[in-house]
Amino acid sequence: MTQLLKIRDLKIGATVYPPGEPTRWMEIVKGVSLDLEKGKVVGLIGESGAGKSTIGLSALAYGRGGVEITGGSVDVNGRDILKIRPGALRKLRGAEVTYVAQSAAAAFNPARKLMDQVIETSLEHGRLSKSEAEARAVELFRTLGLPDPETFGKRYPHQVSGGQLQRAMTAMALCPGPDLVIFDEPTTALDVTTQIDVLAAIKTAIRETGVAAIYITHDLAVVAQVSDHIMVLRHGETVEYGETDQIINAPREEYTRALVSVRQIEHVEKGPGTEPVLKVEHITARYRGLPRDVLHDINVEVYPGQTLAVVGESGSGKSTLARVITGLLPPSEGSVTFDGRTLSSAMEGRTREDLRQVQMIYQMADTAMNPRQTVGTIIGRPLEFYFGLRGAEKKRRVKDLLEKIEMGDGFLDRYPAELSGGQKQRVCIARALAAEPQLILCDEVTSALDPLVADGILKLLLDLQKTENVAYMFITHDLATVRAIADSIAVMYQGQVVRYGPKTQVLSPPFDDYTDLLLSSVPEMELGWLEQVLNTRKMQSAGN
Amino acid sequence: MGLLARLLAQRIALGLVLLFAASILIFVGTSLMPGDVAQEILGQSATPEALANLRAELGLNEPPLTRYISWLTGVLHGDFGTALTNNMDIATSIGKRLSNTLFLAGCAAIIAVPLAVLLGLIAVRFRDRWPDRLISTITLASISLPEFLIGYLVIYFVAVKLRWFPSMAMVYDGMTLAQKLNAVALPVLVLVLVVLAHMMRMTRAAILNVMQSAYIETAELKGLKRFTIIWRHAFPNAVAPVVNVVMLNLAYLVVGVVVVEVVFVYPGMGQYMVDHVSKRDVPVVQACGMVFAFVYISLNMIADIVAILANPRLRHPK
Q: B152 vs B147, B159, B229, CA distance in Å?
């Protein structure tokens, strides 16, 4: 096989401007080497900050933001692209090497039709005539399973769904007939049931066009489905590099083993208690100005010290349910009962005690904290507000809470910007606990975190549940998280609860159609899983 | 009714409401002007009887609301009344003056708008390099100098020293277009210099803002030429703010050119209004105010409508 890409001892860095500190040079990639043959796929995997995307973009000799390539070589088809003229580099980009971004929704120009954007490089680089390019684009739309491939290109980006845009972006990358495509987390932002389709479409397209690819993701189970080789990265260095089979089934390094075994927290469900702490009955709700109900007749219960996982795709109404329970969105019908009392439907009608009992933790810890307040102030605020604590007493309690979230009192005077993603979320947990609530609503609290960090947060939440006897309503789209933490599960789809019960019962067959689809779409750390699922689905639909 | 149609209808309705509010402001404002019109017309030696007669004739004894309504009714019918000072029909005089002003503003706009956008694009293309700095410096210098100074400088160098164009921009009926263009060349030059900087800098800022978007990175990774990226991918998404500032400057060209008109002795609206303010000719001032308000409000309304139409989400709903 012929060598397509040869990266040697690549060093990349950037000048960073940390708040309140002098600017400094930070190394992002510290001497990584990589080989790729024509028609092969290599997966780059690692946590955020591992340098995956930076390495991927180096194959286009591109540094995002202030990123600079400082050393090493990147050979594409035998020439070092770090040293070629700007004109030659432009001919390489979009023709020999193309790029698929994580958020296709942002990567498409909102003002231009999809077809114009898909065929743009083919025309600009003189690779195809307009009619040839359009014919090829339609062909690719078909291969990628887009609806109405003939007319799909006439639409604007905002007129198609996120999953379709991601496929359109793949078509855009493949249209000029490149030798290499960089896929930068192409399915990360998608719902799990959409992800499987896009993943299958990308895999088919790679196979049919014979293009080589670098597939970047933080999800090992996803990359195992598409790549021949996998490189595990951490802090800008190669941890392990090998064939996919070896990495998944016989990882050599400790860190790789941790990645492979991630999300295997064992949690045995507790039996339902006698009296539920939260009872949601016949809730129907809609947003003002929208014609349709967002929630229809929702009935769920949460028991003291237990976890109800609410699972579903984006738009299924999970977060709306949390808004109804907190009183942010008064429902049009139904009632919320807490500890035997019916709560006022609107937040204004609730007592301070009602408010204290139900706390929230959000997905984006970043935006849920005032960046101008220290950790001590943030955690101390509910203590002051609900219990009137001041001075030394308050400080002692804050330290206590920091202890509980496994962070020392060294963090008291730190600002949110100085914390890592996991630490920020821990502070939010401490703030929720400070009110000593009986129920915490957790809205996708681990979705924005790297798998290992997310695992740490889940373990912490489970430990706290034991010691504080707090109940969780855990909103998530991630079934692995559900398995790890839930005692009971409500599956939501289009504003309705389609399946509800104790964890083992909900996760055992027979399934309803939607739960089956949802469960079978979760990538498993297993070679050939994707084909297996698709085959099973094909057979099922043939059988029907 | 579609969302687009509803938004446009809302915007137009808002424009009408604004115009109505402006008419009240203008009427109240001019009523508060010190002095008595009758006294002003007849002079200090007028007898009390003559003053009373004239007041009754002019309707000055009516309650303000009645006077406002009869004035507004006239305006809506295109009748601005007659000038107190020379008894001429205001609508006719304004018509002539307005067409002169619009001619001057139009000539300036045809040059300034495309030039400003082009310079903005070039400034973005060579961002922080010498073409960008040169463009920014020159346009900033021209906006910083007072217009009358630029006017006199231009007269001194271009008209007096070089003798290329006349220093007096007199236009009258019967001139050919070429003669007229020759006459207004210098004021147009001054106006272009005055409005160029603002529009150019806004174009630059709006495009630079769009250049931060993810789809510009996509375009860059597609290996497109820098100018293609700016023109094809950035500019269409920067149209709304650019149109806004263009319209503001067009409005300025019509409403704010009084200084330039005076410097070049150009018979436009600005001079007409200033003349009659000093003569306390209230109906003329009111009429000019209404015309200016109309121009200002409609140009801004057009800017908003273009911005709405430039949004693909509104133009092509799901």
A: 9, 10, 42
Question: Which residues of chain A from 435 to 454 reach within 8 Å of chain B, CB to CB?
Answer: none
Chain B residues within an 8 Å CB radius of A156: 312-313, 316
3-state secondary structure of A500: strand
Residue B232 at interface with chain A, using a CB cutoff of 8 Å: yes
pLDDT digits (tens, 9 = 90+) for B109-123: 999 999 999 999 999
| Dihedral sign for Cα atoms in the order A385, A388, A393, A397 | negative
In a mutational test of the A interface, the residue from B212, B218, B220 whose CB has the highest number of chain A CBs within 10 Å is B218
Domain residue spans of chain B: 3-76, 95-278
Give the Å distances, CA to CA, from A434 to A323, A348, A357: 21, 22, 11
Minimum-distance CB partner of A101 among B218, B232, B237: B218
User: Under DSSP, is residue B11 helix (H, G, I), strand (E, B) or coil?
Assistant: helix
b vs e for B216-247, b when ≥16 Cβ sit within 10 Å of the residue's Cβ?
A: bbbbbbbbbeeeebbbbbbbebbbbbbbbbbb
Q: Identify all chain A residues contacting B218, using CB atoms and an 8 Å cutoff.
A: 99, 101, 107-109
Buried b (16+ CB within 10 A) or exposed e, A126-138: ebbeeeebbebbb
> Which 265-324 residues of chain A touch chain B by CB within 8 A?
none
pLDDT at B6 over 90: no
Residue of B nearest to A173 (CA): B222
The residue assigned the tokens 């399915």 is A187
Give, for A361, the enclosing helix (H) or strand (E).
strand A358-361
Which structure tokens are listed for A340?
A: 């035997």
Q: With CA atoms as reference, report the closest residue to A329 among A386, A382, A289.
A: A289
Cα Rg for chain A, rounded, in angstroms? Answer: 25
Contact B316 A110 (CB under 8 A): no
ipTM confidence score = 0.76
Q: What is the pLDDT of residues B41-81, one digit of tens each?
A: 777 777 888 878 877 777 777 777 888 888 888 888 877 77
> For chain A, percent helix, then strand, then coil, each to nearest 5?
40, 25, 35
Whether A159 and chain B come into contact, CB under 8 Å, resolves to yes
CATH second-level architecture of B95-278? Answer: Orthogonal Bundle (1.10)
Distances (CA, A) of B85 to B31, B58, B119, B275, B278: 17, 13, 47, 11, 11
Distance between CA B245 and CA B112 in Å, rounded?
12
* Sign of the dihedral through C-alpha A225, A229, A235, A236: negative
Among A93, A107, A155, whose Cβ lies nearest the Cβ of B214? A107
What's the per-residue H, E or C state across A296-318?
Answer: EEEEEEECCCCEEEEECCCCCCH
Q: Is A454 helix (H, G, I), strand (E, B) or coil?
A: helix
Looking at the predicted structure, is the pLDDT value of residue A20 above 70? no
**CB-CB under 8 Å, B312 with A158:** yes
DSSP letters along A192-222, please? HHHHHHHHHHHHHHHHHHT-EEEEEES-HHH
Which strands, in side-by-side order, build the sheet including A97-100? A97-100, A180-184, A212-217, A41-45, A229-234, A237-243
Chain A residues close to B220, C-beta within 8 Å: 62, 93
Contact A176, A141 (CB under 8 A): no
Report in angstroms the alpha-carbon separations of B154 from A25, B128, B138, B163, B193.
53, 30, 16, 11, 11
Please give the backbone phi and psi of residue A276, each rounded to the nearest 5 degrees, phi first. Answer: -70, 145
Domains and CATH numbers, chain A: 3-260 (3.40.50.300), 278-508 (3.40.50.300)
Q: What is the mean pLDDT of residues B111-136?
A: 90
Cα–Cα dist B81/B29, whole Å:
18
